[in-house]
């Protein structure tokens, strides 16, 4: 049982708890009366100045210009807009969209809707087949390609710089999903991408805020009716306090990146080793070395993932199962399927910035008994 009866949150892959810096920033911004950034009154000017600062701070973290940063909404509509906007801007070139097999489901859906969808496979660790990728993006009629920096379920780093270079050589713009990497890796030089997307909820900011960074010269066209806000790149009035809080969260998380990453990597290494030792018939997936520091996924034979998640919740540990892109834990993971891994009976752990060694050891103590109990109920023990 979790120490003191309090639940241990181990599901940061679905969103990091809001950082104190972000909450404080939101409270200050919300109480200052910032208004519509297009208005000329003082409240409007304050809002415009705040958004300029947000864009400058986000741009500094991704190696871009402030005027390339668009403040958007949650990840799914942001990623879909990035893909659909490039597809619209490049439709004279062709309608083919190239992605890896392990992209976020919103990206895969947008790619399929954009025209011919070419899916490039991954290996057993979840890493892109770079040779097949290079061949795919070099085909005639490719409008764009999409790739994540690191996988949101198993944590494996992709060869994003080499993949981006293959796109540049082929004259194909790349949508780069940096959501899992922002604040956890150095993202100031991620290669020759054309559009970059990210989500504040992943690094302790408001879940309502995302970012789409569109390089100058990229033929991106708004795939929805546009208005006067943000040069017509994202419709509607921006939630300035939430955007301000998102920038504060990114600054704070990136500021402690090295210290947090070292601790999380050590704890995940401990989990990778001990889960495989303490639980029979378990498969720990993802690259053990080339990965983001905070994620771990494993699959247990003869166990239902939903049942395992619920029993661990009763024991005081909040974990995830199934696809990270699905609201239902029963939805099989397309990421694990693409890797050739077991798609049922899986558990995904996402350590937060405050996860402790004591909490990890408590989880390791509880897990074997929970798995054994479920297997016994199913007659597989």
From TrEMBL:
The keyword Transport does not apply. Signal peptide: none annotated. Its cofactor is pyridoxal 5'-phosphate. The chain crosses the membrane at residues 190-214. InterPro entries: Aminotrans_V_dom (IPR000192), Cysteine_dSase (IPR016454), PyrdxlP-dep_Trfase (IPR015424), PyrdxlP-dep_Trfase_major (IPR015421), PyrdxlP-dep_Trfase_small (IPR015422). One of its GO terms (molecular function) is iron-sulfur cluster binding. Keywords: Iron, Iron-sulfur, Membrane, Metal-binding, Pyridoxal phosphate, Transferase, Transmembrane, Transmembrane helix. It catalyses: (sulfur carrier)-H + L-cysteine = (sulfur carrier)-SH + L-alanine. The keyword Nuclease does not apply. Belongs to the class-V pyridoxal-phosphate-dependent aminotransferase family. NifS/IscS subfamily. This is Cysteine desulfurase. It comes from Microlunatus flavus.
